[in-house]
Specification:
Elements: H1 3-11, H2 23-37, H3 43-57, H4 63-73, H5 77-83, H6 89-106, H7 110-116, H8 121-126, H9 140-149, H10 151-154, H11 158-161, E1 164-168, E2 171-174, H12 190-204, E3 212-216, H13 222-233, E4 238-242, H14 251-258, E5 264-269, E6 274-275, H15 280-289, E7 299-305, E8 311-312, H16 315-318, H17 325-333, E9 341-345, H18 350-364, H19 370-384, H20 389-401
Parallel strand pairs: 1-4, 3-7, 3-9, 4-5, 5-7, 6-8
Antiparallel strand pairs: 1-2
Helix pairs in contact: 1-2, 2-3, 4-6, 18-20, 19-20
Protein name: ATP-binding protein
InterPro entries: AAA+_ATPase, DUF815, P-loop_NTPase
GO molecular function, one term: ATP binding
């Protein structure tokens, strides 16, 4: 393939147009542009090669593995249509053509690129000092077909690279370093979590799944349970979107976009509570009840709260001037009923607290007689305001750091 064709095929990408925004691919495009322009001297080409390699080497020395990964994770019109079960013949033809080109591009070396440009022997010798990137052969069409068949688990675009997201101005933003919490690190509340896990498995299987309210005492692991479940089932196609209470009004539009995604999503609202006149109250009702088109089957809301009824109510609210005060109070208190599954996390009694301590001590390698450990932990819990899994973990971490002896 001549240089002009390499350059034209890169500029003419349609299905994989987004690859041109990739910082490494963009540097390769700039390199072929400079070579095609035939700039006098070696400086412009040398500079472009160096910029491309510097960008590539930030990730890997193998150009083939980098490009193939970018292709497999790219969000394209084809993968979106295939996820919904249809792919137009014209798109299939374009997809096949571009995959064949990109497979050839994965094996392109600097020497082959110089030869394609018809470079003189002298120019090749002048650029001999530059590093040579590695390449790898891959059956890209087969790999892409396999990836498309697994799109419901591996996703595409940013959903293929990340499994936890936050919301900024109505758009999803990936969390690059999510909390690595695992279920095995949360002893003592297995029975409570099992209900949430069963609901999550139903969501992943495409079966009817409930919105979930996890409520109870502070420090009992409600939020940690949701994060750990998200980590546990990420390989099965689960993604977690953390939503702040003041962002609830942005969520309906976001849910409409996620409804067409083949992955499954948990909208996670942590530490949820409202005042009686809170505008976000109506927004949450709309999210839980769904739009006129019904609730998306691939989305569930998981919320945590220290309050069973979610609404902060005062005695003044009960003796106010609302003529239909009973109806108003009933509406406020019924919000929690809109969660199909409510799981209670109560402050641990002594036996459960000791079980949690014993397991955490084992996980952290704490070498202390159990009776001594329990006595010290009880004293620590009294100072910390009472027993809880959070207090148990704080105590064990202090033991690990040598603070508790």
């Amino acid at each position: 393939m001549k240089l002009r064709e390499w350059n034209a095929r890169l500029h003419g990408l349609v299905v994989f147009r987004s690859l041109l925004d990739d910082p490494v691919v963009a540097k390769l495009l700039d390199l072929t542009d400079r070579m095609e322009a035939g700039a006098p001297g070696y400086g412009p080409v040398c500079d472009a090669v160096a910029q491309f390699e510097a960008a590539l080497f930030e990730h890997t020395t193998n150009w083939g593995s980098y490009l193939s990964a970018a292709v497999l994770e790219a969000e394209t019109v084809c993968v979106r249509q295939a996820a919904s079960g249809t792919l137009a013949p014209a798109l299939q033809t374009a997809l096949d053509s571009e995959l064949a080109f990109l497979q050839a591009l994965c094996g392109l070396t600097l020497d082959e690129l110089l030869a394609a440009a018809g470079s003189a022997t002298g120019q090749a010798q002048e650029l001999a000092f530059l590093p040579r990137w590695e390449t790898s052969s891959i059956d890209l069409p087969a790999a892409y077909a396999q990836r498309m068949s697994e799109v419901g688990k591996k996703g595409y675009g940013m959903f293929a690279k990340h499994h936890v997201f936050t919301v900024e101005n109505g758009h999803l933003v990936p969390v690059k370093y999510p909390d690595p919490q695992r279920l095995s690190e949360l002893p003592g509340y297995e029975k409570e979590r099992e209900k949430v896990i069963a609901n999550t498995k139903a969501l992943l299987a495409g079966m009817p799944a409930n919105n979930v309210l996890l409520y109870g005492d502070a420090g009992t692991g409600k939020s940690s349970a949701v994060k750990a479940i998200a980590n546990e089932f990420a390989p099965e196609g689960l993604r977690l979107v953390e939503v702040k209470k003041n962002q609830l009004y942005q969520i309906p539009d976001l849910m409409d976009k996620l409804a067409a995604n083949p992955l499954k999503f948990i909208l996670f609202i942590d530490d949820l509570s409202f005042t009686a006149n809170d505008d976000n109250f109506a927004a949450l009702k709309a999210i839980l009840e769904g739009s006129v088109g019904g609730r998306a089957k691939n989305i569930a809301v998981y919320a945590t709260s220290n309050r069973r009824h979610l609404i902060k109510e005062t005695l003044t609210d009960r003796t106010g001037d609302d003529i239909h005060e009973a109806d108003t109070r009933q509406e406020l208190m019924s919000l929690s009923a809109r969660f199909g599954l409510t799981v209670t996390f109560q402050r641990p009694e002594k036996a459960r607290f000791e079980t949690i301590l014993a397991e955490l001590a084992k996980q952290h390698g704490i070498d202390m007689p159990m009776d001594q450990l329990l006595v010290k932990a009880e004293a620590f819990a009294i100072r910390a305001g009472g027993r809880s899994p959070r207090v148990a973990k704080q105590f064990i971490e202090q033991c690990e750091a040598g603070v508790q002896k």
